[in-house]
Request: fold
Amino acid sequence: MYQLVEIFESLQGEGRNTGRPCVFVRFAGCNLSCPWCDTDVGPRFSLSLDELVAEVKSHRSKSVVLTGGEPALVAAMPELVAALKAEGFWIAVETNGTAEPDWFAFVDYIACSPKAEFADRVALTRADEVRVVASSAAAAGFCRAVRERIAATDYYVSPCERDGEIDYATTKEVLSRLEGWSLSVQLHKILGFR
Ligand code: SF4
Reply:
């Protein structure tokens, strides 16, 4: 059984695939505890493999985002990835980069958001995009270290949100200290869609 928080269809709100319609599957559980985390990772319901695939298929989009929490921790993910591939889905995973399970090789897109607060936990070596949250000006140094560690096509800095306030000033400061990094905002929060 898969422990889940929510499944919903929306537009991808950040990174290179911004605007792409996707079915988001949010798995319960995370191995980090970021001080500014606003994601509820407690399990709300569980589904079998067949039930989960059927739920994803009930939506219109043929793209699915495996997110969390931390989906890399889900033991039965290889079976789910194989089943979704067999149904023709484009599959993305959103990960904090603390693990690099074998099944990452079978998804179409890896978006990694490593956390400066847990710099020593970064284990991922490759991704399609990397997004670092500008939680402090010191995130610039972390960005440089991450770029040495994780080979990716795109590198983004995202503003940190605390208590409903989006901190653009620190984001600007971090980006001004970097070369080859772009801004990624959480458009779904700004435009008010889920
Ligand atoms: S890795 Fe993501 S889900 Fe986990 S605590 Fe940090 S922000 Fe929250």
About this structure: The chain has one domain: 2-191.
